[in-house]
Amino acid sequence: MLTNRRTFLRNATLATTALSASRVMGANEKIRVASIGLGGQGQGNAGRMAAVPGVEIAMLCDPDTNALDAAKGKHPGATTVQDLRKVIEAKDIDAVVVSTGNHWHVLAALWACQAGKDVYVEKPISHNIWEGRKLVEAARKYNRIVQGGTQQRSCPVQDEIKAFLDSGKLGKIKWVRCNHYSIRQSIGKRAAPLAPPTTCDYNLWLGPAQDIPILREKFHYDWHWNWNTGNGELGNWGPHILDDLRNVVFRDKIPLPKRVMAGGGRLGLGDAGETPNTHFVYFDTGEVPVIMDVHNLPRGKEVKANDFYRRRRTNAFLVIECENGYYAGGRGGGKAYDLNGKEVAKFSGDGGRSHAANFINAMRSRKTSDLKAEIEQIHYSSAWCHLGNISYRLGQNSDIDQARSRMKDLEQWQEVCGDFSAHMEANQIALQPGDFRLGPLLEIDAAKETFVGETATPEALALLRREYRKGFEVPDTV
Ligand SMILES: NC(=O)c1ccc[n+]([C@@H]2O[C@H](COP(=O)([O-])OP(=O)(O)OC[C@H]3O[C@@H](n4cnc5c(N)ncnc54)[C@H](O)[C@@H]3O)[C@@H](O)[C@H]2O)c1
Questions:
Q1: SS3 annotation, the chain
Q2: In the prediction, which pLDDT does 30 show?
Q3: What is the whole-number distance in angstroms between the Cα of residue 232 and the centre of ligand 1?
Q4: For domain 5-152, which architecture applies?
Q5: Each residue of 61-100: pLDDT tens digit?
Q6: Which pTM was predicted?
Q7: Domain boundaries of the chain, sorted by first residue
Q8: In CATH, what number does 154-356+374-462 get?
Q9: How far is the CA of 98 from the centre of ligand 1 (A)?
């Protein structure tokens, strides 16, 4: 039986704070890391951490013993545990890597901070905006090194792109389009709830999420497409792409947008997923307009290939439209073109190979400024996604003409509405009432991380946070 959580945390905090206070890591001293969450990304993260000189994967944690067994094969010296509270309790663990489902990110990371451990936490760093801020508060209060998992921030190409934009060759930035198009199939719809795998301790897997029936076919990974555990495709790819936007275009000077409006639907699937598979968002940044467009249907019913951004025939993540041309690129780099479409510059990166090493270096220097993806910035980038999801979730049954008329004068909004209609036509989807939702234009108070004005309804405000399952609450005071 585990100790009562509060007593446990208090003890753990006292014990390990004392430990870390007395522990100044030498440049060559071994750093003992625990890898929490060992699905696809967690296994990868454990391998990438283990490859950093001076790092030992000392503990592996996953409520599913299948995942533990697979990871143990690669890190035979590590202790395995199903309950992450055992990791938090372990005094000889210096840092944790959190690669669980999104619903666990903040609580796992926050407990680790309270226990005096440093944290590498996957994107989106939070499941909702409120808890993301709590993690930032915990990082500050306990003086922790906390890195977000947007690894491309460690790629040198981002600075090269910034320098190119600053050179003025493309002129001023006019607007930005952020895209992600990839095909995803139906996740099924069961009549009877799915039984979790017998190898998995479901209580631990659920943690802060609600215990509600799972009607999809697959237990792992597809949690992304139910709000209880995931944040949809916008919360999956958005944290990368919007993080690039916030970094490369806005230089981390715009924490949150001023206004956000979303439209879309879960279309052409008829499955148990709740998050939209077709989702477009307008971000009023106070500077140039930004549109994000995400979808998971193919280019067309008969063309089973990923879609592309029509205007530019590219599926680049980030299209930065400038006076004299544009830049289009993804995590690995990109290209710049002039107004005639002629390539004028090319950038190639390494996808952020050194992100784990960057984290470990910052652990040794104890300087948050050494981190490429310091938690506060990645909290903001994650929050942009949450805002786009909130507008969608508040959305009413609508149609694309109503969407168009909401922002008649915004050329980029008209463009994405046109792209949506063309995409529906290409996939031969005739929208039925209730299929397409249009959300409110939410007004945001960036300093307070809340909504203001007419759209600050109780429903909107409620979506800034969640109901936590008993025993797994993110605390108000960290
Ligand atoms: N940075 C990137 O490029 C990148 C790429 C892929 C995924 N991710 C992120 O990594 C996370 C994991 O994604 P995935 O694809 O591996 O998902 P997944 O479903 O395959 O794996 C999640 C694992 O976490 C485990 N888990 C659940 N609760 C846990 C707990 N309390 N303690 C320990 N483990 C727990 C699950 O049992 C599962 O094995 C997601 O948040 C995702 O957004 C990031």
A1: CCCCHHHHHHHHHHHHHHHHHCCCCCCCCCEEEEEECCCHHHHHHHHHHHCCCCEEEEEEECCEHHHHHHHHHHCCCCEEECCHHHHHHCCCCCEEEECCCHHHHHHHHHHHHHCCCEEEECCCCCCCHHHHHHHHHHHHHCCCCEEECCHHHHCCHHHHHHHHHHCCCCCCEEEEEEEEECCCCCCCCCCCCCCCCCCECHHHHHCCCCCCCCCCCCCCCHHHHCCCCCCHHHHHHHHHHHHHHHHHHCCCCCCCCCEEEEEEECCCCCCCCCCCCEEEEEEECCCCCEEEEEECCCCECCECCCCCECCCCECCCEEEEECCEEEEEECCEEEEEECCCCEEEEEECCCCCCHHHHHHHHHHHCCHHHCCCEHHHHHHHHHHHHHHHHHHHCCEECCHHHHHHHCCCCHHHHHHHHHHHHHHHHCCCCCCCCCCEECCCEEEECCCCEEEHHHCCHHHHHCCCCCCCCCCCCCCCC
A2: 96
A3: 14
A4: 3-Layer(aba) Sandwich (3.40)
A5: 999 999 999 999 999 999 999 999 999 999 999 999 999 9
A6: 0.95
A7: 5-152, 154-356+374-462
A8: 3.30.360.10
A9: 8
